[in-house]
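Troubleshooting: if your tokenizer reports a length mismatch, compare against these two reference records.
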Amino acid sequence: MLWGTALAVAPALPQLAEAPGHSHDGHDHVHTDPAQAGYAVAAPPSEETYAWNLPAGFPLPYVPPDNPMTAEKVELGRLLFYDQRLSANGTMACASCHEQGRAFSDGTATPHGATGEALVRNSQGLGNVAYYSTLTWANPVLTDLERQILIPLFSEFPVEMGITGHESEVLARFQSDPAYQARFAAAFPNEAEPYTWGNIIKALASFNRALISADSPYDRYLAGDLEALSGAALRGMDMFLSEELECHHCHGGFNFTGSTRQRNTVFVEAPFHNTGLYNLDGRGAYPPNNPGVAGVSNRPEDMGRFRAPSLRNVALTAPYMHDGSVATLEDVVRQYEAGGRVITSGPYAGDGRRSPLKSGLVSGFTLTDQERADLLAFLEALTDPTFISDPRFSDPFAAEAQALP
């Protein structure tokens, strides 16, 4: 399952409420109507029994009031996330494109759906997705997991899980399974007939929100373990936070992304950036099947603008960028050193450094080999080994198989 690759989905999604534009602070922002986008309109649940177990410095995630977190919903969502029966033809699960060992990404440039159709965007890691203010590479109006999950389940262009037209058939698989009967009853105890797509989506969203990653060497250093970061990583952190490199402007805060929302957020901005990855025509054009926010807003100036993802566990989520076209983390750093990417041949040839649509934050810088190695050491120190092996997030069916005699 790839969260949010489709440009055409069912059901229809609302259009941007306000034309996006560029601010004067060097940052790129898309402003949407908070009421339409769901920002700070409904208050979070006043009572919540779910134990988040967050470390110091991590705020409570936003949770929609109509889907409060419970351990029972999270566990049901985990089962559904790993169950191939959730796809129409029974060949893939959400976990097919979101592997725990890869921080819930999948290691390919762009994955394939249940019918073998190639998708157009890279599968993003899901760690700390509960804190994202926008949930896809280039759609500012998708701000809640419950709405975003509709895409991989029901999209037809391209097909991901392929459920459209097979809704009753797929639902019946779980309704007739005694193990799922007990799980649905526990997750939705006040409903006589809990087997609905709405409840499946609520359970999947709850499991996704539970995927908290907060135990990297960087986190342990902040918690007082001064030996957690190597000398190289400490030097790299200083460079990361410097005004010369500008990394922290797009990848700042506790979650290393500007696309962040938490429990008491009043107003949310949705930053999207053109990093000079392509410049096909000398005027900033991107490949036509992947134009960025422009594919939603239909505004030429939004060409090539994509969300800056979190850098937590970034060393595990190669290849990089919205289309998986950058193979290694070092390649990413070198691209930003150059101030954009130069492609010398082929259909995508062009000099991204000279794109008139490129963000002013991507201006290039100079690193020695040692400085580059130090920066990479810091990025690697954002890897959370506990997260990728946490049994609370692991495949329950694999565990059952291992337990068999």
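Reference record two:
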Amino acid sequence: MTTTDTRPTRTEQYDDEPPVELVCSADTLSTTLEAVGSVVSECRLRLAPDGLGISAIGPATVAAASVELEPAAFDTYRSDGRTLGIDLSRIDDALSVAPRGPIRLWLDPDGRLRLAAEGLEYAIGLLDPDSIREPPDLEAFSMDGAAVHTEGETVGSAIRAAGTLADHLTLGVTDDPALVAAADGDTDEMSLTVPESDLEGLERPPTEPSRSTFSLSYLEAIHRVLPDEAVRLRLGDDEPLELAFDLADGAGRARLVVCPRIRRG
């Protein structure tokens, strides 16, 4: 793990406004970073003038994440467009003891990210962004299947049930159409069927059944960050699974992708 050089440079010795300053609720920050943390432990934080963005891919190239927050998600959003390398566990440690009110983050002249909430203040060392794996373009993943709108709790129920007897979960869409989930262990099996009438919406329903099988180790990590309410799944036949949901009351979006574990003949 490589940290940035913390010696201040002439351009960083500012006396007035820091080049990066964000103020938002603790919930917005933690929910956003937890979504990415379900896939990686380190990431590049892009602070563009038009909003915050993170894209990351796991070390095994099985799971990927992308989150975006518009300036409207913040009480204060100011950035000169730089990219920071962050260790998510360090920020998570700070947030775990911070009050649940507004959180202020800014870049100090020593090149550290400072986090403050109601008198509590952390100075967090940053990583060299170039030492962190190049983030993916999620559009490069083949995801041409049906888009299923359902509740996160429905997805969570299927993952939890599968975890009692197997290490994988098969998700698919039938031509009825219906969302289906299934898993089988050595002697036991489970299945869940959600008909179209119980879904929030369905786009591009398949003309014939399609399904893919995924490792529960990845799905369980992602399940912990899904909201209970609206989630969009994109499902195809032996294709990656995309789970998408809103952040910050609609001022942000998260997309999580998991590649199939088992290819069927």
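Descriptive notes for reference record two:
- The longest strand covers residues 42-48.
- Residues 14 and 109 are 7 Å apart (CA to CA).
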